[in-house]
Amino acid sequence: MTTTLRLGVSADDQALADAVAKFAQAELAPRAQALDEQELSATCHLPQLAELGVMGLNLPEHLGGPGVTPTAMLLALVEISRACAATSSMMGAHYLGTDAVLIGGNAAQHQAWLPRAASGEWLAGFALTEPRGGSHPADLRTRAVREGGHYRIDGVKHFISNAAEAKFLVVFAKTDLAAGPRGVSAFIVDRQTPGISVSSPEKLMGIRGAHAFEVSFDGVRVPADCRLGEEGTGFRTAMKVLDNSRLDVAATSLGIAEAALAAAVQWAKDRQIAGEALAGKQGIQWMLADMKLRLEAAWGLTLQATALRSAGKVFTQQSAMAKLYASEMVGFVTDCALQIHGGYGFTREMPLERYARDARILRIYEGSSEIQRTIIARAVLG
Question: Which of 38, 313, 342, 359 is most buried, judged by most C-beta within 10 A?
Answer without folding.
Answer: 359
